[in-house]
Amino acid sequence: EADIYQTPRYLVIGTGKKITLECSQTMGHDKMYWYQQDPGMELHLIHYSYGVNSTEKGDLSSESTVSRIRTEHFPLTLESARPSHTSQYLCASSAGQGWEETQYFGPGTRLLVL
Amino acid sequence: AQSVTQLDSQVPVFEEAPVELRCNYSSSVSVYLFWYVQYPNQGLQLLLKYLSGSTLVESINGFEAEFNKSQTSFHLRKPSVHISDTAEYFCAVSDIRNTPLVFGKGTRLSVIA
Questions:
Q1: What CA–CA distance (Å, rounded) separates A95 from B9?
Q2: What CA–CA distance (Å, rounded) separates A112 from A50?
Q3: Taking all residues of chain A, what is their mean pLDDT, rounded to a whole number?
Q4: Are B74 and B65 in contact (CB under 8 A)?
Q5: Residue A48: left if φ>0, alpha if ψ -120 to 50, beta else—which one?
Q6: What residues of chain A have any CB closer than 8 angstroms to a CB in chain B?
Q7: Could you tell me the CA-to-CA distances from B70 to A20, A90, B33, B91, B92 in Å, in that order?
Q8: Residue B34 near residue B101, CB atoms below 8 Å
Q9: Least Cα separation, residue B9 to chain A (angstroms)
Q10: Is residue A94 a contact partner of residue B28, using CB atoms and an 8 Å limit?
Q11: Count of alpha carbons within 13 Å of B31, Cβ hemisphere only?
């Protein structure tokens, strides 16, 4: 079983609030990812990181930001939440640098912005 | 850029019956192919993957998938499903240019007793 954790699991919040979704992994993986998934739709990569102090934007434009100050921690922040941000956010990690490596996923955070 | 199409959004099947979940991809170069599974209230986990070599890959719980380059497919099959196989299944593709994984929309497999 992979050791990757996301908090909170569920979040209901009002428009305009700043929120941070936490993601931590204890496997020492270099690469970490954030995906956004709407019900019945594809997972879309919104951010990824090759290692400490490395962050890249994914294929889906997102108003969120990320940071990678420690190997095990990859938080995602929304400065001002809007209803359009309502979605499920999945964090993942993998060993090595290549995209052929197995990704290990956290349980996800379901976000509802009112 | 590569893309993935999962043709069926939902597949209901009776317990002990065979099942096939379809996945087609498009890419101009050689690919890596994956099937991930998401059980209810859990994160995605790798089911099996094709990187190179034998075109038939198997998982530990009886699923198999065959890479068919001419048909650009990577369909997932199981000869006899269990209730515990009820889950969402995602096909994904990356390629040798080291591009990010692209996921399909997922297929919800519902096994009926």
A1: 31
A2: 29
A3: 92
A4: yes
A5: beta
A6: 2, 4, 35, 40-45, 48, 58-59, 90, 92, 98-100, 102-108
A7: 45, 33, 15, 18, 18
A8: yes
A9: 8
A10: no
A11: 26
The dihedral sign for the CA sequence A8, A108, B11, B60? negative
Which tokens in the block code for residue A69?
């100050």
Predicted local confidence at residue B23, as pLDDT? 97
Chain A closest-CA separation from residue B97 CA (Å) = 9
Tokens representing residue A81 in the block: 């939440």
pLDDT in tens, B42-62: 889 999 999 988 999 999 899
Is-contact B93 B75, C-beta < 8 A?
no
What proportions of chain A, in percent to the nearest 5, are helix, strand and coil? 5, 45, 50
Which residue's structure tokens are 């992994």? A25
- Sole residue written with tokens 């192919």: B33
Q: Are B107 and B21 in contact (CB under 8 A)?
A: yes
